Structure formats: structure tokens, C-alpha cells
Amino acid sequence: MTGAAEELTMQIAQVVPCTEAEGPGKRFALWFQGCPLRCPGCCNPEFLSFKGGSTKTLREMTDEIQQARDESGVEGITLLGGEPTAHAPAALALARRSRELETTLFWFASGFTVEELREKADPNVLELIELTDILVDGPYIREQPDTERRWIGSRNQRIHFLTPRYSYDEQWRTKNTLEIRVVGREITVNGFPAANAVGLWKGWRRKKPIPLPVAPETKRSPEETDAK
Ligand code: SF4
Questions:
Q1: DSSP string, 28-92
Q2: Sequence ranges of the domains in the chain
Q3: Predicted confidence (pLDDT) per residue in 114-133, tens digit
Q4: Which of 85, 168, 212, 219 is deepest in the core (most CB within 10 A)?
């Protein structure tokens, strides 16, 4: 890729460099900042606005993915929403990079079905589909929580295995998982919660900074006062 292509920018809401809660194996998960849709019960309302998040270049994201692959053994990248197709040039650049790095690509098009995506005839989206190993499509429907298929939000959503690299094997038939990380004062929660727990942690995330623990106050006797 040319130097200019490496400087392509993308708006990123969140990155989890190594997770097992966003698809098969260890994965580098990336949430775009911004979605034009408003699915009731969306897990990530703070990722809907197109303002916010961090602006990253393709070069920076490549460095992060390479580091995760080399240090943690991630086998693939997972793209999540904010809706990835609302960031199609960036999503495509990451998909091409995923192929170059020999990692797999899994993405959630929770705003659309694959037929709707193909009908749009956006060349970026069409090539993105070509480079994808697993695509989950269809809107997230809060009233239809999926408790049978791991990594899937609601029962209407379909899994498309677009290459032979993955199939619907045993690991898809286990319970969904949620990962909670506390790094310093930051809490990151990802994965798929039980339907009645969606968003419960959002209050924690917004209440920042998290107060650090303080030593209990010691009562001093009158003799110990500083008064002279
Ligand atoms: S498409 Fe995804 S990010 Fe957008 S509102 Fe629906 S669930 Fe939320």
C-alpha cells in the first residue's frame, strides 16, 4: 500500500486487542464510532453518534493488530458497530489488511441483511463481503434474544460462512460469554450479556473516574490533635 493509503483515517469507538467473546478463537475486536440506525435495545448507544471516539490511521490500527497477533496469538479481526458499513472505506481497508496479515475477518452487519447490502451495490461493501470469512446479518431484536448460538445477539440474525475457514461447529453451540476488564480507572465490557442484563454496566462506564480506594479515616484522640 502507498503511504497515503496508510494514512487513511477511521473513527474508532473501542478496541479490545484480544478477546474470546466476539467470535471464534482469540480475536482483535474493533467497534466503529457512528451508526445511522437506531435498533431498540442496542447494546452500544454511546457508539451511535458519529462524533467522539478516537481518530486512528490504518497504519496505527495495523500496528495494533500486528502486536495482538504476535503477542497474544489472535487469529482474526472482528468488526462491530457502530455499523461497519457506515464506515465502508475504513472497513474495507481493514479487511484487505487482514488478508495481508493472514488473519480471518468476522463482522456484524446488524443493520442490514446480506441481500440488502448487495443491493446497495457499494463497491467498498461488495469487496468487503468478498474478503469476509463470517458475516452475521439482520437487525438486533431485543425481544428475540438468542440463547442457543454463541456470539449472536438475536434469533433472527443469520450466520453466513463465506469461506471454508470456519463452520457451524461445537464452539457456536455453547453459552454466550461476557468479558469485563478493569485497567486502571477504565472498565471495558464486551461480549453478549443475558437479555435482561443489556446495558446494566453502562452506568459504571459513564461514571468516571472511578474513585480510587482510600484508607479508612483514623479517629484521633484529643491528645493527638495538632493544636498547640
Ligand atoms: S445497527 Fe448495531 S450499532 Fe446500530 S443501532 Fe443497530 S445494534 Fe446498534
A1: EEEEES--S---TT-S-GGG-SSS-SEEEEHHHHHHHHHHHHHHH---EEEEESS-GGGGHHHHH
A2: 3-212
A3: 999 999 899 999 999 999 99
A4: 85
Contact 120, 92 (CB under 8 A): no
Task: Tell the CATH topology of 3-212.
Answer: TIM Barrel (3.20.20)
Q: How far apart are CA 105 and CA 28, in angstroms?
A: 10
Q: What is the CB < 6 Å shell around ligand 1?
A: 35, 37-39, 42, 44, 48, 81-83, 110-111, 140
Number of Cβ within a 10 Å radius of residue 55: 10
Q: Taking the complete model, does pTM exceed 0.85, yes or no? A: no
Closest CA to ligand 1's atom 7: 42
Q: How far apart are alpha carbons 79 and 124 in whole angstroms? A: 15
Q: How far apart are CA 112 and CA 90, in angstroms?
A: 18
Question: For 119, what's the count of Cα atoms within 13 Å in the CB-facing half-sphere?
Answer: 5
Q: Which of 14, 37, 136 to mutate to test the pocket of ligand 1 (most atoms within 8 A of CB)?
A: 37
Q: What is the pLDDT of residue 221?
A: 47
Nearest to 96 by CA among 72, 145, 61, 52: 61
Query: In angstroms, what is the span from residue 112 Cα to ligand 1's centroid?
Result: 10
